[in-house]
Amino acid sequence: MSVRTVGVEEEFLLIDPVSGRPRAVGGAVLRIAEADDGTETELTGELHREQLETATVPCNSLDELGRELRRARAEAAEAARAVGVELVALATSPLAVEPTLSPSVRYREMRERFGLTVDEELTCGCHVHVAVDSDAEGVTALDGIRPWLAPLLALSANSPFWQGTASGYASFRSQVWSRWPSAGPNEPFGSPAGYRATVEAILGSNTVLDEGMLYFDARLSRLHPTVEIRVADVCLDPDDAVLVAALTRALVETAIRADGPPPPVRTEVLRLASWRAGRSGIDGELLAPRTWRPAPAAEVLGRLVDHVRPALEDAGDLGTVRELLDAVLRRGTGATRQRTVLTQKGELRAVVADAVAG
Predict the structure, then answer these.
(1) Which of 40, 155, 166, 236 is the most exposed place for a label (fewest CB within 10 A)?
(2) Domains in the chain and their CATH numbers?
């Protein structure tokens, strides 16, 4: 049987290899990439000039996706080195930084409206796109995956430091991101008409600038026939990004196949689940969907795999997902590695250097 294609967008920091601090050279890196006829990767700028975004092509298999992620990272890193910086997969900068707004009328308007939220928003996420055949399928998926998005955040946690300080969170990016007025979990939409009515109500409030600022945890893509799941940190290890993408695709497929609406859960509870996932990652307890009681992260993630098992089996992904999940549970997430390096080396610059080394 055919499987839904999946693609991944990843955001990265551009780091000075000596100081370990982000540098505002995103425009220069993009010009290098555009001048290189051999570069296949789609590179784009972001809100701040200290970062860059890559995107894979839509992929059918996890092997293909893994190759695409590594190729995109390698080509972006080569372009970055051409202007004297390193590309690093860290969801926040361990060292203190004052971000530099990218030159854009839209970004200037965002700064005027949202102030310090824009000035401090130097974070890097991982966005997974899963193909759907219609808006009806897409909304069914959005409504069905809601309970399981927090465990995906926990799996990807890779931002324990903020402005030179240990944040106490495995994913402090999720805390920073939550300051946007349209960010986070949402109520079920019920239908494409319900989704559109929600979008129109938000736009009609004149709070966000445009539809591009609908920062739901998951949304219908404006540009592609996909649902776009946006909860994850950029992953230090590309294998973790493959795992997040595989589980995301299986969640979408499982939701679309389901008979009837998903079990109800209030958005307030989902916010609690997201907070706990960002706080402890996979090193503590998460809220278990359905019971909404705390349980060890490994147990909750095991329930997630059980929930989507038929979809994983049909895609041929079950074995790979089990291997990748076992690996991250053994070694920890990017947040675990960052904290370990700080304990061993005693300085945050070593954390950045370790990320550069891969």
Answers:
(1) 40
(2) 6-344 (3.30.590.20)
